[in-house]
Every structure is written in structure tokens, then in C-alpha cells.
């Protein structure tokens, strides 16, 4: 679901969805705000600084959710983050949970006083190092640190916690396997890491939806692989590989 403005960015957004065979039924265009934008600066190591102007993103509301209830209640997975209003994200997670739909939450960009219901409504809670630091107050610079942060976050009520570590892969923790496990990733030449987290979380949503029989560790190995492909090309969405360009063993 999305709200975009009636402007050229909004038109391009809708067009891009159509070109990729993604339904635009719940991508609304409003004249009350401009399309949200993100200005991104990338350094020579491929690291980034992003300035987000939320714009129309903040207009997506719980009424919009109610209009999509028949689709949400039949979904395989509900993936939410914080680039829309937290109240709308929370409403979407609650709606999904009440229909037995698996919930995946990515607290990006992080807010320190996150509503506690985000934890209890998350089957899978997936954050990066800086988000883990903001949410826990711990310093997160290693897999061991990430494990400590994951334990703290799981104590707040999630079923599974994943902390991504950039080139270090990720750390996983679940109610059924409550010892943090580090899942390293490929060593690649990163050109632009912008959007790596979205690539990772998107891949994970795909595996949760279509390959639910895989172990969590296997899903994360494959998500690491796909995100590592994305950091080897410039841009965010433009760096994400199509399924046809990925090795067959991932499917
Ligand atoms: P975010 O983009 O939210 O800051 P991360 O930087 O933690 O998130 O990256 C998310 C995932 O993308 C990592 O867990 C890893 O799988 C992959 N990734 C990111 N940077 C690299 C890199 N330099 N080399 C290989 N994989 C990477």
C-alpha cells in the first residue's frame, strides 16, 4: 500500500509498479501532499547518508487499511516499516495478526520510544545495527553485540529477532532457538549499500510467504545472498536483482 502525490515522482512510482506487474489497486495518488523523497549521499566505500522527506507517505491512514481488509486478511505476509505513520503501520500489523497473517516488521527509520505493541505484533522483527542501538541503548558493532540487542528486543515480545550487520551478514534469535546465531554473508565489492536493508527484508518476506518450510537460517542465508547482489550495483530499487537473474538454488 502507498500514498504518493499527483506529481511526476508519483506518476513514475505508479508506472514503475505497473511495469513490474505489481498491483496499483492500493497505491493512492493524493493532491494534498508531494510524493515522499529520499536524498541519498554515497561515499567511496559505498556507505550512505539519507535525508527522508516523508510527504504523502504520512497520509496513508487506517481508513485506507480498512479499504484493503479483504486483501490484507488473505495475505501470506504483512511487511511494515516506519516510513509511513507509526499508527498506520501498527494498524496494519494488528489487522494482519487478527487474520492469522504472518507479520514482519522493520523499524526503519528507528524511533527511540517505539510503541511496545510493535514488538508483540511482530512475528519477525528485523532491524539494522543503528536501529538496534536506538531501540536498546546498547552499542552494536559485532555479532556478539547484535546477539545481546536481539535478546533484549525479544524480551519485549517478538517471536523472532534479526539484526542485520551490513557486510557482516546478520544475527538471528527465535523463541524456539533462544541462543543468538550469526549468519555471515558473501564478501563482495560494495558499490552502493543504499537499500540493502530493504532488499534483505523484501527477500525475507518472499521466503516467509512462498517457502515457509525452509528453516529460518536457510531463509536468512538466501536473503543475505540477495542483499549482497544488491550492494554491487548503484541505486536502491534499480540495484535489486530480478528472480530470473539469480541462481536457481535460491528457489
Ligand atoms: P541497512 O541497509 O538497513 O543499513 P544493513 O547495512 O545491515 O542494512 O544491510 C542489510 C543486509 O544487506 C545485510 O544483512 C547483508 O545481508 C547485506 N549487505 C549490506 N552491506 C553489505 C556488504 N557490504 N556486503 C555484503 N552484503 C551486504
TrEMBL record:
SUPFAM superfamilies: Ribokinase-like. Belongs to the carbohydrate kinase PfkB family. Residues 3-241 form the Carbohydrate kinase PfkB domain. Transmembrane segments: none annotated. Its EC number is 2.7.1.15. The keyword Kinase applies. This is Ribokinase. Keywords: ATP-binding, Carbohydrate metabolism, Kinase, Magnesium, Metal-binding, Nucleotide-binding, Potassium, Transferase. It comes from Erinaceus europaeus. PANTHER family: RIBOKINASE, SUGAR KINASE.
Amino acid at each position: 500500500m502507498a500514498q504518493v502525490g499527483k506529481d511526476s515522482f508519483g506518476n513514475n512510482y505508479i508506472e514503475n509498479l505497473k511495469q513490474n506487474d505489481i498491483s496499483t489497486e492500493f497505491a493512492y495518488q493524493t493532491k494534498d501532499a508531494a510524493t515522499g523523497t529520499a536524498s541519498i549521499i554515497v561515499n567511496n566505500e559505498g556507505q550512505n547518508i539519507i535525508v527522508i522527506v516523508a510527504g504523502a507517505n504520512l497520509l496513508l491512514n487506517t481508513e485506507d487499511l480498512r479499504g484493503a481488509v479483504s486483501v490484507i486478511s488473505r495475505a501470506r505476509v504483512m511487511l511494515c516499516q516506519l516510513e509511513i505513520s507509526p499508527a498506520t503501520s501498527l494498524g496494519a500489523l494488528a489487522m494482519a495478526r487478527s487474520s492469522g497473517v504472518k507479520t514482519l516488521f522493520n523499524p526503519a527509520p528507528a524511533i527511540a520510544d517505539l510503541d511496545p505493541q510493535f514488538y508483540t505484533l511482530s512475528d519477525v522483527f528485523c532491524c539494522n545495527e543503528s536501529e538496534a542501538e536506538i531501540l536498546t541503548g546498547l552499542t552494536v558493532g559485532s555479532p556478539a553485540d547484535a546477539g545481546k540487542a536481539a535478546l533484549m528486543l525479544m524480551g519485549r515480545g517478538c517471536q523472532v529477532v534479526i539484526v542485520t550487520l551490513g557486510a557482516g551478514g546478520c544475527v538471528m534469535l527465535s523463541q524456539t532457538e533462544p541462543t543468538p546465531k550469526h549468519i555471515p554473508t558473501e564478501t563482495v565489492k560494495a558499490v552502493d549499500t543504499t537499500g540493502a536493508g530493504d532488499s534483505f527484508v523484501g527477500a525475507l518476506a518472499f521466503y516467509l510467504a512462498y517457502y515457509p518450510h525452509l528453516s529460518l537460517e536457510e531463509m536468512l542465508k538466501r536473503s543475505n545472498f540477495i542483499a549482497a547482489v544488491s550492494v554491487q550495483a548503484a541505486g536502491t530499487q534499480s540495484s535489486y536483482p530480478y528472480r530470473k537473474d539469480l541462481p536457481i538454488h535460491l528457489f
